[in-house]
Design brief:
18 strands, alpha/beta, 495 residues, TIM Barrel, eight-stranded parallel sheet, Urease, subunit C, domain 1, 16 helices
Length: 495
């Protein structure tokens, strides 16, 4: 497909490009990037007033496939990703069965190949069954296509086993994505140890449980020379530890998630189990520390930790409900609202943490950039459009988000993978075709109150078992009710 994108504000975090340019794509590659391109194309997109950037790369997603597909599956998860401008993602290993063998890696790759084109990179388990007792075969997982190793959802409590895992991971050149919480200190506790846990008369998850393992894994990275990536950083002290260790030249990277620079533990009091997540929501002081880490580059990436659950599960009492919230369809909008529109971060810096940096951490070659010859994975969004988050319009099976009803600013209009338009938000006036022309199918559907963004997806992909969630659609019982190749910073030794 030959695609021409005109008059967009192109943001390329690699070359530092922030300019009004045209972009020409052919055979899945970016071939031209300049002003006023004159060439024939199969499709022309007028991106006037819109931002054109690399497709987002989410290095921390739970697709629940295999075995837990009542929560999410690869088809619905990639549809949700496309709605949020995400063109590539890494999916975690805590499925049923656990992704701890080459066969499970192959299953995910094959099923993702049948989806909508969004790239899915499987993450293999560090330990068999996530039990923290016996290492998986890192070499076999790498050969099968694993992009990284992680026991996310569980900490590798045994320090000696973790050290051995890092030695093997370095040999096969895979990063280990670490869930840093000391199991003996957190158990199944639902909320941060602090004022809210005291109000609720509940045992809390102490911040030190995260910080002590962050320090341990950073020291192990220093000792072994392996690449350690810290998942979902939630405390200001964790940021301080990572900052100090990076200055020592340790091969250490990290991510945070929108909930950790937006929401405090107080959210539990109004949202209940929808605000239960691991690690838990922390304090205003921690939010300040997280934002400081994003601004100075200590925090390399913004990921979602997209963790779908059913309505029945999240309806349980707080102490018994599972932890986790979804985020693929809202992460960019929340980041723009809380970081860019507040003046806390410049747009290129924000885009870098959602595109190039996570791609570099996973060593995804030409992903996360809009350079000549790079993969034509592109997100186009309106940074000024205001909208209200409505989980009933999500493409995900799940609805478990504490951001429901929140007004945000910034909306994805097009998601393009390998030069193919996966999601398209139609801009023409609903039901108002040009004079003398019959209405298009998209215009007819919009007039009926349906979402042409999802219509394009379902017209392109045959998913007979999945009914699109139009307004007024009644959810199934399992769904929630309405309710460069190298990272990154000079100080890290990674480039």
């Amino acid at each position: 497909m030959k695609l021409l994108i005109q008059n967009g504000r192109v943001v390329d975090p690699v070359n530092g490009t922030v300019s009004i340019l045209d972009l020409y794509v052919e055979n899945g590659k970016v071939l031209q990037l300049e002003k006023d391109i004159q060439t024939e194309a199969d499709r022309v997109i007028d991106a006037t007033g819109l931002v054109v950037c690399p497709g987002l790369v989410d290095l921390h997603v739970h697709l629940r496939d295999p075995g837990l597909t009542y929560k999410e599956d690869i088809f619905t998860g990639t549809a949700a990703a496309a709605r949020g401008g995400v063109t590539a993602m890494a999916c975690m290993a805590n499925t049923d069965p656990v992704v701890d063998s080459p066969e499970q890696i192959q299953y995910i790759r094959e099923k993702a190949g049948q989806a909508n084109g969004v790239h899915v990179y499987p993450v293999g388990a560090v330990s068999r069954g996530l039990r923290g007792e016996e290492l998986t075969d890192a070499d076999a997982l790498k050969k099968a296509g694993a992009a990284a190793l992680s026991d996310d959802g569980c900490n590798v409590d045994n320090a000696n086993l973790m050290r051995d895992a890092l030695i093997h991971a370095k040999r096969v050149e895979l990063p280990i994505l670490c869930h840093c919480e000391d199991t003996s200190m957190v158990g199944n506790r639902a909320v941060n140890e602090g004022s809210v846990s005291r109000q609720l008369w509940m045992e809390g998850r102490p911040a030190i449980a995260e910080e002590i393992v962050v320090m341990r894994d950073a020291m192990l990275a220093e000792e072994t020379g392996a690449h350690v990536h810290i998942c979902h950083v939630s405390t200001a002290k964790s940021v301080d530890i990572i900052r100090r260790m990076k200055k020592r030249g340790v091969a250490l990277t990290c991510e945070t998630c929108p909930q950790y620079f937006t929401l405090t533990e107080d959210e539990i009091l109004t949202r209940g189990a929808l605000a239960r997540v691991n690690p838990p929501l922390r304090t205003a002081k921690d939010i300040k520390g997280i934002i400081a880490g994003l601004k100075d580059g200590t925090i390399d990436a913004i990921a979602t930790d997209h963790a779908p659950h059913s309505a029945e599960e999240k309806a349980r009492p707080l102490a018994k409900a599972p932890s986790g919230m979804i985020g693929l369809e809202t992460s960019l909008a929340i980041a723009l609202t809380e970081l860019y529109h507040t003046g806390r971060m410049k747009l290129p810096d924000l885009i870098r943490r959602m595109t190039y940096n996570p791609a570099a951490i996973l060593r995804l070659g030409t992903k996360g950039r809009l350079s000549l010859g790079s993969d034509a994975d592109i997100a186009i969004f309106d940074p000024e459009e205001e909208w209200t988050i409505d989980p009933e319009r999500f493409a995900s099976k799940a609805r478990n988000t504490p951001f429901a009803g929140r007004k945000v600013k910034g909306r994805v209009k097009y998601t393009i993978v390998a030069g193919n338009i996966i999601i398209c938000e139609i801009h023409e006036a609903a039901g108002q075709p040009p004079s003398g022309a019959p209405p298009t199918q998209d215009q007819r559907e919009r007039k009926r109150g349906r979402d042409p963004c999802l219509l394009m997806y379902y017209r392109r992909r045959s998913l007979p078992s999945r009914t699109p969630p139009w307004p007024g659609w009644t959810p199934a019982s399992s769904m929630c009710p309405s309710t460069s190749e190298r990272p990154l910073l000079p100080s890290t030794g990674w480039g």
